[in-house]
Design goal:
The structure is a single chain. The protein is α+β, with helices and mostly antiparallel strands and 203 residues long. The protein is 34% helix and 28% strand. The chain contains 8 helices and 13 strands. The termini are far apart.
């Protein structure tokens, strides 16, 4: 199994959102100095063994560890925003445990996670699907490394996949970006995330 990568700690504070209402209002509580919190990037092997977000957030304080796992909906650590996948589902499909890196764009939250439900079906149209038990293992390994973008409405908790059509609709007020996006041939995070960051500059 690949070793996890320790991301970093610093002098900034950690801010947490205990309820969805607090998250929607962007009213978090300062819970610890960042030096008391660790953000660990999970390996591909760990993702295959146990689904969920890319990051595990822990603390030197056991009480905070429990809160990170089950209580908090989202946290800021060293100026980076993460949402708790344990709290998220799309239709009836749960994302799993751990945290995903996210960003606010307007009044919505966009986060990066592995393909689930509609997202995996959409990507399968472009990918070669292997059949049989051995093929299932290959597909699982392939998708464990892929990341797509989801939109979270913090007011309702509804999560939707951000694919080509949704991104194209979001870019309607920005014709130059929409024209550029029309030339893209991927729905993965590295493409969709790039245009979300461009939109975010307008807010």
């Amino acid at each position: 199994m690949l070793l996890s990568l320790l991301v970093f700690t610093g002098s900034a504070q950690t801010i947490a959102y205990s309820t969805r209402k607090d998250l929607a209002a962007k009213k978090g509580d300062t819970i610890a100095a960042a030096r008391e919190v660790m953000v660990v990037k999970r390996s591909k092997a760990q993702m295959m063994m146990k689904s969920g977000g890319d990051f595990k957030i822990t603390s030197v304080k056991e009480s905070l560890n429990r809160s990170f796992r089950t209580r908090y909906h989202a946290v800021w650590v060293d100026g980076i925003f993460y949402v708790n996948c344990r709290k998220l589902k799309m239709n009836k499909l749960w994302f799993g445990n751990f945290y995903a890196q996210a960003m606010w764009v307007g009044d919505k939250i966009y986060f990066s996670a592995y393909p689930l439900g509609a997202a995996s079906r959409s990507l399968s149209k472009d990918d070669e699907i292997q059949m049989g038990e051995f093929g299932d293992a290959i597909n699982k390994s392939t998708y464990a490394a892929k990341r797509v973008v989801y939109e979270l409405d913090p007011h309702t908790g509804v999560v939707t996949f951000v694919g080509r059509e949704k991104m194209r609709s979001m870019l309607e007020p920005y014709p130059l970006l929409q024209e550029s996006f029309a030339k893209e041939n991927s729905e993965e995070f590295h493409v969709i995330g790039k245009y979300l960051r461009e939109i975010n500059k307008e807010f």
